[in-house]
């Protein structure tokens, strides 16, 4: 799917900032695409964008109304319908990252068909992709993997892509999840792809390219997570990665949502991911560690990163505190 920008960010009746995390992520990484926000009564989130009506957004050239809310249960509430129908009537596409599909709401489907606009359910994927073949393809690819879910893989890959572009390198961020798709404007939510086709989906979004071009591929899940390891394996094999970045949150007591499972140590995580990556690219290497040190003070974060660098002889950075420059330095050596 390819989502047209600029965007009007729909915040609905989000009760707090966390409920608008999708919108916040898009605004952080693609501010130039976000021309305004639309809030309903009771909304407690604010992106700092101009508040716009549908009519004002249309006049400003908005192409897509993005549902930037991540509410409990992923529900499209009745209170939203007037706004969604008004956007369709104005000729806007609607892009949705919630569990509830726009395509299951007859009133929206009929209105969209009448106006010739698109309804994008980015958390789902109904398109056709080939079975992965593992054949060598040109270009270079880096994939973020991690000790657990939600440790910063998307942020890390977005930061790497931004740093590459700053240096004049050829690169594209390849989105594999709903928020990443909004930020990139296109991609495939691989956790919604039938398992036999995950590697083929990744081959599709990161195809053959110029020899000096980097695809920076957003990671999902973790090989060590009992619930989501399957999607990670498909990403590893389909990416045919030349390089891996290991992402980690050092204060986490157990795997996200699995109290009975501890996080692996970094050496084990590196070795296991690299072993599987070498199936489709025997030359794959680990180029560094992206450590989410948000829960640590500056001194503790600096000490931990120095210890990791000393142990592995590779860059260890916090993409927020330090940036990913040292990792991109290593990628430029490949």
UniProtKB/TrEMBL annotation:
Domain of life: Bacteria
Protein name: EBNA-1 nuclear protein
Domain D-glutamate N-acetyltransferase-like C-terminal: 131-328
NCBIfam families per UniProt: DgcN
Natural source organism: Thalassospira profundimaris
Pfam assignment, any one: DUF1611
Matching InterPro entries: DgcN-like, DgcN-like_C, DgcN-like_N, P-loop_NTPase
Residue ranges annotated for the D-glutamate N-acetyltransferase-like N-terminal domain, each copy included: 42-124
